[in-house]
Amino acid sequence: MTEDDSIAQLLASTSKETDVASVETPEPEVVDRDPPGPSDEIMIEANQLSKFYGEFAATRNVNFQIKRGEVVAFLGPNGAGKSTTMKILTGYLSPSEGVASIAGYNMASERIAGSRHLGYLPENGPLYLDMTPHSLLSFFADARGMSRRARTERIEAVVDLCDLGSVIHKAIGKLSKGYRQRVGMAQALLHEPDVLIMDEPTAGLDPNQIQEVRNTMNRLGKDRTILLSTHIMQEVEAMANRVIMINEGHLVYDGPMNKLAESGETLDQAFRRKTEFIDTI
Q1: Which of 205, 101, 201, 188 lies closest to 136 in space, CA to CA?
Q2: Alpha carbon of 96 to those of 65, 166, 179: distances in Å?
Q3: What's the rounded Cα separation, in Å, for the pair 29 and 250?
Q4: Which pLDDT tens digit goes with each residue over 121-161?
Q5: Helix crossing, 133-143 with 148-161: angle to 10°?
Q6: What is the pTM of this model?
Q7: Nearest to 44 by CA among 267, 194, 206, 151
């Protein structure tokens, strides 16, 4: 093979790679946000996040930053890529492309350091049903290396915060779904994390419990960063000051909650408009 032939093959290969990389991604609507809250410190960052399963893209080129003190609602229809994105952000999944960071730590390569700043409540989070809330919280405190004094203080604090006192020594398997959700939230808050990622935190709760969760989120959001997913628009209005919306793996909106709906629209109507089918590939 001559030198000219080698150069020709190299140029052809580069051209093919360029064609693959040039697949157009729809631009999300990014709305100017109000001035930042208590801090400009970036606590959650998704940088060009993509997750591929064969030729299927669960997420593609997802980008956003969330600062300390922000409470952000993560919205999208079922199958849009919300849970995949949240699992990548927590380090549970590795991205195919891009970087997920918590408190400045790359969650693919520095997951343990990042997890010290992170509390995660997955939807229907796994719990040890034969344990009691107290024994479960003690187990997680030991796993996180908390001292005996810190463990006692923090268990008392989260039991009070999540109103678990009446069931603290009852087997989790005998608790209602609402109480199990509270145990999961207590676990996520146990180590006083800077960042909370919660997938459907009010699932299975009665109206009074939902209001308690709202109040808790509003208190925690003053000095922590919270990313929560929900399908309930009332939750967005009550708890979030910003909305990030994903559809078919692509970011379609990032901006203030009060600018999501157009004049005369309800939030439900705005959600439907933003998540209509899009031909992306």
Answers
A1: 188
A2: 19, 45, 36
A3: 11
A4: 987 777 999 999 999 999 999 999 999 999 999 999 999 98
A5: 140
A6: 0.79
A7: 194
